[in-house]
């Protein structure tokens, strides 16, 4: 499974790497010698015996928890530690100026 210079140029373009003609020749030789040699053992496995994997978690279809609302704080509990609540609201300093 040798790569042509056209293949290597396509890979370089995809990776946004500019190669001169000399670099292209060197990279083609390097990829055909070192890189594809690493992949040869993978190509020796029988493809017919191996079912395709479409998703890494297999048959799991829904791994999310149910979206069920939980009870929150009551207004009194929420305002318990507020420095100066007013009626049923948090009282905060005005950032626009004007009356409090």
UniProtKB/TrEMBL annotation:
One Pfam family, short name: GatC
Record InterPro entries: Asp/Glu-ADT_sf_sub_c, GatC
Keywords: Transferase
Keyword Secreted on entry: no
GO MF terms, alphabetically ordered: transferase activity
Biological process per Gene Ontology, one example term: regulation of translational fidelity
UniProt-recorded name of the protein: Aspartyl/glutamyl-tRNA amidotransferase subunit C
Organism: Parolsenella catena
Gene for this chain: gatC
């Amino acid at each position: 499974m040798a790569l042509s210079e056209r293949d290597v140029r396509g890979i370089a373009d995809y990776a946004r790497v500019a190669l001169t003609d000399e670099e292209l020749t060197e990279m083609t030789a390097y990829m055909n010698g070192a890189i594809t040699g690493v992949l040869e053992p993978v190509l020796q496995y029988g493809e017919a015996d191996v079912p395709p994997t479409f998703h890494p978690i297999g048959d799991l279809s829904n791994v999310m928890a149910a979206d069920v609302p939980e009870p929150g704080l009551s207004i009194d509990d929420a305002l318990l530690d507020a420095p100066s609540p007013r009626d049923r609201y948090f009282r905060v300093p005005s950032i626009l100026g004007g009356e409090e």
